[in-house]
Amino acid sequence: MDLYKHFPRSRLNFSHSFTSYFALLKKHDITVMDLLTTSPRELGLKSGIPEKELVYFVETLRNETPVIGKLKPAEWVSTGDDVMDSTLCGGIAVGCITEIFGESSTGKSQLCMQLTRSVALAGWKSVYISTESSLETRRLQEINPDLNSVYCINCTDLESQQHILEVQLPLLLKQGGFKLVIIDSISHHLRVELSAGGSYRRFVENRHRLLEISSHLNELCDEFAVALVVTNQISDFPEREIIDSEYKPISFDYQLGWLSGWDDATIRGMDFAKGMIPSLGLQWSNANMSTGVLGVFNQ
C-alpha cells in the first residue's frame, strides 16, 4: 500500500482500523489512486473491506488534503481567422507555451504579427522578442497600426537572449496589461550552441538547459496569465522506406488517411509534415502544450 508515499502526514498511517486492512489492499493491488477514483462499493466487492470503512478512509484523505485552488477557466487569444481559431479549438491558449514551426517563408512571423493585432483590439499589450534579425516594424505596422501596444525587443546572441528571458521579460510583465509574448525564434541562438560537441556529458547539459528554459517560460505563462508563442526552425527527418516506392500506394500507412475518412487537404498536410521535425529535439517539444506546423502546399 502506497499511502505513506503520497500522504506521509495522514493520520491514517497510524490508525489501527486502517492499517489492519493494509494486507488486503496490497493483496488486491489497490493503490491510493484507486481509493480516490473508484467507488467504495466496487472496492469493497474486490477486497472484502466493508464499504463504510472505505468511505471513511476516502473522506479522511480528502479532508486532510488542502485545496490548492480552483482551475482557471480556459482563455484564448484569437488568431484573427475564424477557420484557424476553429482548428485550434478557440485560438492560442493563455497560460501555456504554443510552438509554431515550419520552413522558411511559410508565414510564421506573419501569424505572430497578426496575433499582436488581435491582442491590441482586445485592449491588451504584447511583447515581441526577435532573435533572427531586427524586427520589420514597417511590416508590423501594416498588420497592426497600434504599435504602442507592442513592445519590441531584439537579441543578438544567446547571452542577451538569456538575460532578456530571465530578467527583463519578468520585470516588463510585472507592469501589467500584457496578454501575449512572442519569441521569434526560440531556436536561432540555441541551435548552434546546443549542437556543439557530441559527448554524453554535453548531451545531458543540453537537456538540462532546455528544461530550465521551458520551466521558466511555463512559470511566466502561469504567473502573468499570458499566451507565450514561440516559433521554431525545422530539421529534416527523412522517412525510412520499408517497401519499394512502386508498392507504396497499396501499403496500409498510405491508405490510412482515406480509410479514416480524412479529406484530401488533411492527407496532404500529413504527408507534408512527415519529413520535418522541430529543432531542439524531443525534450523541447514535450515542454509545449500545443504545437502547429505551417507549410506551403502545391495545388
Automatic annotation (TrEMBL):
Residues 73-234 form the RecA family profile domain. It comes from Cyberlindnera jadinii (strain ATCC 18201 / CBS 1600 / BCRC 20928 / JCM 3617 / NBRC 0987 / NRRL Y-1542) (Torula yeast). Signal peptide: none annotated. GO terms for biological process: DNA recombinase assembly; DNA strand invasion; meiosis I cell cycle process; mitotic recombination. Gene3D superfamilies: P-loop containing nucleotide triphosphate hydrolases. This is DNA repair protein RAD57. It holds the Pfam family Rad51. InterPro entries: P-loop_NTPase, Rad51_C, RecA_ATP-bd. GO terms for molecular function: ATP binding; ATP-dependent DNA damage sensor activity; DNA strand exchange activity; double-stranded DNA binding; single-stranded DNA binding. It comes from the Eukaryota. Keywords: ATP-binding, Nucleotide-binding.
